[in-house]
Amino acid sequence: MWTIWRSEWKTTTRQKSYYAILILWLLVISLLIILEGTNGSISGYTNITGTIVNIMLYILPLFMLIYGSFAIAGEMENGQWSLLCTYPLEMSSYFFGKLGGQFTAQAVSYSLAYWLSMLLGLITGLSISMNWMLVLYIFSLLLILFFLSIGLFLGAFVSTRWQALTYSVGGWFVLIMIWPTLLIAMTSALPYPMIGPVMKTAMFINPAEFTRFFLVVRLNAGSIFGQAYDSIVPLFEQGIVWGVIFLYGFTVIAFLGGLSIWKLKRRRAN
Could you cite one Gene Ontology molecular function of this protein (predicted)? Predict the structure, then answer.
């Protein structure tokens, strides 16, 4: 697994697109911080913070889905997968090595851009809450981890990068763009007592909604979700939330990893 991890890290960081994405993150985050800084100080959950979160939700998942799916689909397409199949390599080591290498590379790129942007904001005289910076940073890393996992899962089921791109955009469209519309359409046909449990279940199904809920509650704005979520808001306000995040992340990655490993084993056997 560690060999795959290092190989993925080196391959990703040697690509010119990796540094182009780093510059893109730096520009985007800096502009968002400048926008938020028009209030004079940055803390808590404001309308502009909501805009920043939405932009992050649009950009990060799409990029991570594409990166993750291409990491496997590219090897399927160029024949490297066939070569790897000649070695006694466990598919679990292959998948989690890919995930570890990709996450390390993407997290380093994003972290560098993020903290440079925050430093520039502080240098220019902005008052930025440490809690705000840390919560938004953790929110972003969780998005990177979860959607890289989904991207690798999609990559295990395709054979070309075009298919990977199609699946990635389709998954992004469902989980990010039309998810609220799907929820409204689904809950409108349900009896009123069932709406709350269904909405809370849907939040755990979609990692983007889970991470967004975490961020909003940690910025002391959990009330905006309404009465349906009142029973779980206190859970995310307390220290136990870190255990919840660990358990949720472990479950999501284990589930996606298990399905991906099963599919990769079948492809190897064929």
Answer: ABC-type transporter activity
d(CA 74, CA 160): 7
88: tokens are 């006694």
**Domain interval for residue 164:** 2-269
Distance CA(143)–CA(204), nearest Å, equals: 14
pTM for the full predicted model:
0.93
Provide the number of structural domains found in the chain.
Answer: 1
pLDDT digits (tens, 9 = 90+) for 11-58: 888 888 888 888 888 888 888 777 766 665 676 787 778 888 888 999
Rounded CA-CA distance 183/6 in Å is 41
